[in-house]
UniProtKB/TrEMBL annotation:
Family, as annotated: Belongs to the type-B carboxylesterase/lipase family.
Protein name: Alpha/Beta hydrolase protein
Keywords per UniProt: Hydrolase, Membrane, Transmembrane, Transmembrane helix
Gene3D superfamilies in alphabetical order: alpha/beta hydrolase
GO molecular function: hydrolase activity
PANTHER family listed in its UniProt record: CARBOXYLESTERASE
Amino acid sequence: MYAKDREASPHFSSGSGSGGSRSGRSATVELLLQQQRRTRSSSHGGGRGAGMGIKQRPLVRSHSYSHSRGGFFGNRISLWVSGLAVLVLVWIYLRVYGHGYGYSLRNSHSGAGLGSSRLGQQGTKIPLGELPAFILPPSTTTTTLVRMTKPTASPGKVKGKGGGVKATAPAVELKQGVYIGTTNFKAPRFKKSVEAFRGIPYAQTTGGENRFRPPQPLKPSTETFQATEYGQFCPINDGVVYMGQGEDCLNLNVYRPAGLVKGKYGKDKNGNEVKLPVVVYIHGGGFNAGKGIERNMASFVAWAEHDLVAVNFNYRVGALGFLPSDVTAREGILNLGLRDQQALLEWVQDNIGAFGGDKGNVTIMGLSAGAHSIGHHIMHYANSTKPPPFHKAILESGATTARAVFYPTHPRHLVQFREFLTAINAAHIPESEIFSHLRKLPLETIIAGSKAVWDKYVDNVTWPFQPVIDGPNPYSNSSRANHTLPDIIPDLPINSWLHNNHLQIPIITGYNTNEGTIFIPPDASTNSEFRSFFKTLIPTLKDSDLDQLENLYPDPVTHPHTSPYLSVPKGKGAQWTRLDTAYSHYAYICPVLHSAHFMTLSGIPNVYVYRYAATGLFGAANHGDEAPVVAHDMGFLGYRNERPGLMKTADEMISFWSGFIASKAGDVNVARGNRLEWPGFVSPFNKEGWWKDRGKGKVMVFGEGNNERDREVSEGRRREGTPAGVETLGTLEREACEFWWGRVGLSQGLGKQEASGKAKL
């Protein structure tokens, strides 16, 4: 990697909890893979979720030194040489990676909730790019990673030659203070230079009395802060509180082209200053993990064909952000992570103009849980008294009808809530006192308890800590006396689609060919295991449903000559490819097509659907694989043209994505000249969900035939594939979506088909 290249390549950072991976997978996908491995291996030793103890992983292992060779002086010389080598390596590291990418440990900007007694050493700087998952050593204190530090000199100025002063850093003035950013250099990682403002808070800390409460607004300030370092990340559901994580985590990062000054882009016909289009990225992670910087938005800005301003941010995940139950519903604090997202979007409306962004042209973009979230916002703002804080959307591998969206009184949520209370030794607390008690517990206890519950459900994908319907529940007499905020998810998502209760805005949405690979059991070998997986996932499936499912996806064991699922990667069970295909349709592909179908029925002209096909791990196009390609992340694509086919695919994807963001009408083909045109999606289904017109259903395919990131493929057999091409939905998608759309109601409300009576699609 090149010097000062950490922000350009989060996928090359280390660490299991906060970093990325060298495979190019997002930090979110990497975490889920690691957790599944740990959970499955635990069946050979103490069981899942056993015990409540918090993991204590020391930063440095102790070593015993032998005096058997070299004697006293020999060992002394070895130690001196080793020490000198370490110092040299540290010096090189600081020279290479330390410029502008440090982390400052000191008191928090907002100051609420965490007292100074819980702070570590103030002013300590850790020069890390993407913060690795170092674990804090056992201690009674918690080190807090700060969002901001005050500058040591005048904002944005240093002394120049001859005693004068000159501006050296970008600065913006907001109601909450003045923020000094930094500039990322251009070559070789960026096509153009980018200015970054990191760690800017958009709400107060979520710690102390703000825990399990909606995001609280910041107070006005005239102070000046350095915005050159990332703020805290919200704690993920991995059982421990990693260094760099904490509850003062509601912060964002803004990226824009360097040299953006007032009037640079001229004035419009009304004499107003022309501002840049804005894109806001919402991270994924199954609502239990993830962080804003998992997508390299600095690179996205640098390689976009149109100048734009980008934002990524953190929101609460796991139990701290999504703790559904009847008790939580009575407290009026459901879906706090989604409320964080809405607070961020409103912050963007109030402040993005100071960065040169156009608040009237905002696109929200998300992957997986980020895309699920966007679907909920599309429905929420259709019934909100506030104007929508966004105007277009990009949903990658996600939709409102993807996976389960239940009422908080669904038995699964009630059981998981009680298991969480038991794990943190709070099952005896009266219901009226539960949340006041939880606000007083150490953060480590909350996270360890969350992980204990998560481990019980990760294998069968019935995950805890999920968004729920917070509108009136016709199946419960539970009081809503404390529910004073607008509902985030007012109704079953399928009902909102059917009743046209959604924003009618341009969208890009799509899926990867093999969405299910990281979620399914790797060793399932029999048809009974195939049926059992879906019966556990959707308990209200009838035997007749499972029989139909078998016919839709023929068993490769009993039908080896006719089943298309016979081939499996080395080390996988015989049902692996079959499960991947079926789960991909259930959880991602058909929900994505559901969104596109209903948007086109509403008459939206600019609706686009894609499929990402370039293969990697398992020889498949896995969930999240497109992320570094969309971002044109050179740390993943290769600085020395190591992956020329993916580079071409990235060029096509970022051209379409940035064109969509730039165009107020959401036209992906804007300014593409004679290059391949992406046809708008016209649903081939009628209102009853049956196949209607095979000439419709056009989908853009990215990276078909590319296998450059598949490590199992030898150098001579690697193929660039086709960067972009158009296909038409086929018979399998028709049959699969007919099956799954007809059973959407089984994963919503109370998990009964009659709960969404009209859900025939």
